[in-house]
Amino acid sequence: MSDPICPLCRRPIPPGVPQSLHHLVPKLKGGKGGPTVLMHHICHREIHATLSEAELARDYATPETLRSHPRLAKFAAWVAKRPPGFHSKVPGKRRKR
Predict the structure, then answer these.
(1) This protein's superkingdom (predicted)?
(2) Can you tell me whether residue 72 is helix, strand or coil?
(3) pLDDT of residue 61
(4) What count of other Cβ atoms lies within 10 Å of the Cβ of residue 11?
(5) 89 or 50: whose pLDDT is higher?
(6) Strands 19-23, 36-40: pairing kind
(7) pLDDT of amino acid 93
(8) What pTM was estimated for this model as a whole?
(9) What pLDDT digit, counting tens, does each position of 39-81 carry?
């Protein structure tokens, strides 16, 4: 069986690589129990550093819309050149909820 693919950067997620589940609709905005996607932890951190919970719920509730956001598209293109296990601190603070 092949490794799952990260919906943001489209790199494989091999076992042992930092990963997390992203709620497509944030739990605080009614997404508890809703659909989730497995992604690299660095990609998940970048989503939450870029978008507020309200923006995620309103405009970015699918992998396609996440990839269409200018900052996330630029990040995905950058991180796609790194190995699947690449991990780094996301610059800046996490966005307020």
Answers:
(1) Bacteria
(2) helix
(3) 95
(4) 22
(5) 50
(6) antiparallel
(7) 53
(8) 0.87
(9) 999 999 999 999 999 999 999 999 999 999 999 999 999 999 9
User: 87 and 42 in contact (C-beta within 8 Å)?
Assistant: yes
Please state, as a whole number, how many other Cβ atoms lie within 10 Å of the Cβ of residue 51. 20
pLDDT 10s digits, 12-27: 999 999 999 999 999 9
**Token pair for 84:** 């699947």
Strand partners, 5: 12
User: What residue type is 93 in one-letter code?
Assistant: K
Helix, strand, coil proportions of the chain in percent (round to 5)?
35, 10, 50
Distance from C-alpha of 94 to C-alpha of 22, rounded to nearest angstrom: 15
Rounded-to-integer distance, Cα 12 and Cα 24, Å: 19
What are the two backbone dihedrals, phi and then psi, of residue 23, each rounded to the nearest 5 degrees?
-80, 120
Q: How many CB atoms lie within 10 A of CB 56?
A: 24
- Cβ count near 42 (within 10 Å): 23
For residue 28, the tally of other CB atoms under 10 A from its CB is 13
